Amino acid sequence: MAINRSTRISDDDRRQAADELRLAHSQGRLTLTEYDERLDQVGKATTYGDIARLFTDLPATAATPAKTTRVPKWVRVVWTWWAVTLVVNLLVWGLVHTQYDDDVHFWPMWLLIPTIAIAAVSYGAIRSHSAKQAKRNVPAWRR
Q1: From CA 71, how far away is CA 129, in angstroms rounded?
Q2: Which end of the chain has fewer CB atoms within 10 angstroms, the N or the C?
């Protein structure tokens, strides 16, 4: 979603801009005087356009990298429960196989079908989740 430059900013946006300026100063990209002037302008800024003008000569960097995970929590939960299900089925089959002398059909192989389905859904969810997080880590005035 593109941000309109005339949209008003929040206090959180100001804090994020100040953090990015602090990072630029600590990297030596801004002198102390430039840093102070831009920090004052961040405090006075009212729109995304006002803040964006302060960063035109600075490279885009994440001032405070948000905690990111490659895999959504629900995917980890589903795979944990599915792994438990697979292990229990394999153990039961192993116990049955050791109790009978004749060859016991390896029925846990039918669990491959839902495993493939879960893997396909998980793959799509992980790709979508990664794209959303990458977009979320970019400050609004940089979009």
Answers
A1: 7
A2: N
Question: What residue ranges do the domains of the chain occupy?
Answer: 1-64, 73-142
What gap in Å lies between CA 126 and CA 140, rounded to an integer? 23
Which residues contact residue 66 at a Cβ distance below 8 angstroms, ignoring those fewer than 6 apart?
133, 136, 137
What's the token pair of residue 10?
A: 């929040």
Q: Are 9 and 101 in contact (CB under 8 A)?
A: no
Per residue in 3-29, pLDDT (tens digit) is 688 889 889 889 989 999 999 899 899
Reference 57, options 40, 42, 38; nearest CA is 38
CB atoms within 10 A of CB 24: 21
Asked if 66 and 19 touch (Cβ cutoff 8 Å), the reply is: no
What does the pLDDT look like over 27-85, one tens digit per residue?
899 999 999 999 999 999 999 989 989 888 888 775 445 566 788 899 999 999 999 99
